[in-house]
Amino acid sequence: MTHRVLLVNPNRMKPPVTPIALDYLADAISRHGIRADVLDLCFHQDWRAAVDAHFAHNAADAVGVTLRNIDDTTFASREFFLPGFKEVTDYLINGAGAPVIVGGSGFSIMPEDVLAYCRLDLGIVGDGEDSLSSLVQKLAAGEDYTSVPGLVYRDAAGFRRNAPGWRSLDGGEVPARSAVDNRRYFAEGGMGSIETKRGCNQGCIYCVDAPSKGRRLRCRSPQAVVSEIDALLAQGVSTLHTCDAEFNLPPSHAEDVCHEIIGRGLGEKVGWYAYASPVPFDGNTAALYRKAGCLGINFGVDSADDGILRALGRDFDIDDLRQTAAACHKQGLVFMYDLLLGGPGETKDSLSRTIHAMKRMSPHRVGAALGIRVFPGTRLSELVLQSGPLESNSNLHGAVADNERLFSPLFYLSAALGDDVPQYLEKLIDSDQRFLFMKPPQAGDMNYNYNDNSCLVEAIRQGYRGAFWDILKRVSERGDAE
Question: Structure pTM?
């Protein structure tokens, strides 16, 4: 008997972001002999009707729901996604008549809290391809499932969590990328997505990549990566964004992927963007990336003050940022420096040094986000919780009452900056159009929160393609989209 799983994407943000995890998951569990159906609620105006229509004609042995983000991680808006997510899981419980299993990068950050909030019993942290298959088979057979890697489950004593089952990615498998409507996501979201590796071995004090992807870098075969790019091109998806934490770590793997793209003659057929570390990165790297079709790089640099960089756990300094910027400019590679401002030790002086340094280095765009989301399991959360009651910590903003588990959106913004820091930062930026400033909503069109961004939606409708920051850059330069 063939088991059947329904995979649900509840993320309805606009512009839409491809649920790549479900595309990979559907392919993997099919290899285990399980039929995978995908119900993508992103494009349904009435998602409840879509759920009803599916179950009117289909059954499922289990329902897997992906949680990509807990909230928008933006100090200015602090939008909490769990209430809407719970509405979906509640409705699925009533309609499916089968276990509802939660997974995804957002879920892996605080799995027990998500399950408790949603009144669910089962979830999987980390890689889900093998674990979900095993769990479904054991559930269907009535066997004990409590040893499944990465499983989080509820028993009489509360929640228990198994260590994740990090899978090897170097086997050369090429996902079919056929379970999700990638062509539509490209048309309405402006780009496709691909993974070249999983994991992050960096030491940033605020980062949650390790719980969801592991601390060890697990690289895919460059040949498999480029075969997947070819499969997406065949679907009409010609602009991609890598989903790696840092595409250029390790540098040799990124270079091998680029050489494979060039060797297959795809450098002029596909355009791609990536997140990357500013080190190691030089002129030869920039030239290779461009030859392989790279259209832009988003470097998460956080600050241009050496003291703040050390406090945030970064392994580079301002001289590295200067050299990387110079390399990109020399090779004509479009790039963005993304700042995460207001962390431990931040003052108006360090803020000023950072903004003025950005202007001198002149990235094509600078993301300037005030406030850092405090997530459990990070060094920043340890610092916060060791400092005493949340309510009396003047560095904290957002949900400070009854939030010791850091479940609801809570942000760190150095009290040394003062209450007027948004205005101070705006004055430092001084209407420089290279800066994309995440500010309170009333601040207007310099806000680059991508969630429900009408400017981006309209630009993509007009034909713009690429990373959202680069679309905003081109819209601003051409002045032809409202």
Answer: 0.94
